[in-house]
Amino acid sequence: MINKKPIIFSDLDGTLLDHYSYKSTAADPTLQKLQRANIPVILNTSKTLAELEVIKVELKLNTPFIIENGAAVYIPKSTFATQPEDTKVEGNYWVKSFCLPRKHWLDLLNEHCGGFSQYYRGFSMLSVAELSQITGLDLTQAERAKERQYGEPIQWLGDEVTKKAFIVHLVELGANVVHGGRFIHVGDFCDKGQALIWLTEQYREHYSNCSVYTIALGDGENDTPMLDAADIAVQIRSPVHDFPPLYREYKTSQTQLYGPEGWAESIQQLLAEQILAT
């Protein structure tokens, strides 16, 4: 009988972290059980490398992680026996990137979107203090959030009609536009699902004696590609928006509880046998 190996891909804000407090408290005991059961938890988020370097330590994770809505996968060198193909070495990581650098998108916004400039503020325009006020992050956390490598998050200040026109204009210029929990993300045509698929293939090669399957958990529209790409999808209830529509209809569930409470309950139900004895 072939052994089945689950891999968990998880969004952070509003999913594993509470939307308001950014805390994982309700999910911490489940995270510890997963670690003891040797079940990888892959953070798949819009956050930056600088933010993830801190958060993964706080969550006691030493697994690969995906930054900036699928822009790049960071794999600790201890994860696999050999370096995956088409990755570069960056410090203690093997890195697979899918996107053009942030400067490309900043230049595009500055040179071709002047007619919309009064309707939005990008991270590059915001001070650390302003970003802290908007997000509820402390000043140190906000500074890390500004250290983006691939895309530009935007706070929209105008109406919905103008926003739609702005998005159409960006798409015509070759940009991809993704709605996150608080911001519009302008960048390349990459997403959390593409990154999930690529990294899962690396795990399948590593666990060649197992049948690898994926569980994805997320709450926002930017999580939809990840949820659609996974074998099992869990939509986490949000206190600020409805469940975004998914293309898939099978092996999909929606939590009654919010954020990390819903996250923990779902994982415990899906992986009861694997983590019950840990």
Account of the protein in words:
The chain is α/β, with parallel strands linked by helices and 278 residues long. The chain contains 10 helices and 13 strands. Strand 9 (176-179) and strand 10 form a beta hairpin. The protein starts with a strand and ends with a helix.
Compact summary:
The protein has ten helices and 13 strands. With 278 residues, the protein is of the alpha/beta class. The protein is globular, with a radius of gyration of 19 Å.
Amount of helix: 25-40%
The end-to-end span amounts to 23 Å
Text of the CATH class of the largest domain: Alpha Beta
Number of helices: 10
The computed structural class is: alpha/beta
- Total strands: the figure is 13
Output the helix-strand order.
EHEHEEEEHEHHEHEEHEHEEHH
Shape type: globular
| CATH homologous group name of the largest domain | HAD superfamily/HAD-like
Could you outline the blueprint of secondary structure elements for this entry?
Layout: E1 3-10, H1 28-36, E2 41-44, H2 49-58, E3 65-67, E4 72-76, E5 88-90, E6 93-97, H3 102-112, E7 120-122, H4 128-135, H5 139-145, E8 152-156, H6 160-172, E9 176-179, E10 184-187, H7 192-206, E11 210-218, H8 224-229, E12 232-237, E13 252-258, H9 259-270, H10 272-275
Parallel strand pairs: 1-2, 1-11, 2-3, 11-12, 12-13
Antiparallel strand pairs: 3-4, 4-6, 5-6, 7-8, 8-10, 9-10
